[in-house]
Amino acid sequence: SHLFILNRSYNINILTKEQNPIGTIIEKLRTIDITEGREYNSIRRLDIDDKKVNYYADVYIDDCPNMINDMLDYPTRVLLLYDRPWNKNYKIKSKNVIRVYDWKDIFKFINRVRLTKEADKDAVFC
Question: What's this model's pTM, rounded to 2 decimal places?
Fold first, then answer.
């Protein structure tokens, strides 16, 4: 899977605002063959009001349009905004938000990025 390939080079951690119990979320991921330790290293369920940018990452991969404005305060971080019907009409106002259309776009960006320090490899959130 795409996450498996990314997780070989980066520390993939999943942040989700899905409000089911964490065990239910993990089981849901398993049904689509996404497992802890292989496709991701940790998962955290956030409260609805919590912002993902409160959790450090160099790169966020997300489809939530609310993150576009959140990224204005974090110019050294990058949001790869996965294009979806619910975010198509949102204007990107910052150079650190890049609209991606598929996993090919995500890999193209990730492979182009030169992370400045080894610790930075420990920070990609979906």
Answer: 0.82
Domain count, the chain: 1
Round the CA-based radius of gyration of the chain to a whole number and report it: 14
Q: pLDDT, tens digit, for every residue of 7-54?
A: 888 889 999 999 899 999 999 999 999 999 999 999 999 999 999 999
* The one-letter amino acid at 20: N
Domain interval for residue 47:
2-125
Q: What DSSP string describes the chain?
A: -HHHHHHHHS-EEEEE---S-HHHHHHHHHHTT--BTTTBSEEEEPPTT--GGGS--SEEEE--THHHHHGGG-TTSEEEEE--TTTTTPPP-STTEEEE-SHHHHHHHHHH---SSGGGGG-EE-
At 95, the amino acid letter reads: K
